Amino acid sequence: MIISKLENSFRIESLHPLFKTLFDYVKCHNLLKEETGKIVLQGEDLFINNVALEGVEKNKQPLELHRDYIDVHILLEGRESIGWKPIEDLQEELQAYKKEGDCALYSDKPTTFADLHPGEFVIVFPEDPHAPAIGQGKIRKLIAKVRV
Questions:
Q1: What is the DSSP letter of 126?
Q2: Of the residues 2, 82, 97, 102, which has the maximum number of CB atoms within 10 A of its CB?
Q3: Torsion-angle region of 71 (φ positive above 0: left; ψ -120 to 50: alpha; else: beta)
């Protein structure tokens, strides 16, 4: 898991060939003013879900795990915490992995939490079980999906 500010994305753009494309797009568009929905940048290899949602209580948000995509959560508005737990410590499968949707769910409790502010992002790799959208009130964010 990587946490940083958008202005520092250049430091990690070399970690995946599509990271620079993603961050350049986000920095050049005011996506908070755009309608919610899917933004396709490079087919199924790179797309963004621009979402508006209500925060979820810490004890009600399951951990999710992906295999085919890296998630890049970019907070646009509100406050959000994202929980994390080492993959090796997962024990309580809630939903087995489904290829459609690229997701497995676990009811284990996160061991670490990262608090995000607008303009910050978290990158979660397939080995990073995470519980997003923890908070109170409205959250506006981008969830970019970058094919591994």
A1: T
A2: 82
A3: beta
In the chain, the percentage of residues whose pLDDT exceeds 90 is 100
Number of domains in the chain: 1
In order of 35, 91, 93, the CA distances from 122 in angstroms are 22, 24, 24
For residue 75, the domain's CATH number is: 2.60.120.370
Q: What is the full DSSP assignment across 12-38?
A: TGGGSTTHHHHHHHHHHS-TTSSPSEE
Residue 96: predicted pLDDT: 97
Task: List pLDDT tens digits, range 34-77.
Answer: 999 999 999 999 999 999 999 999 999 999 999 999 999 999 99
How far is residue 55's CA from residue 58's CA, in Å, rounded to a whole number? 9
From CA 46, how far away is CA 30, in angstroms rounded?
18
Residue 61: its pLDDT value, please?
A: 97
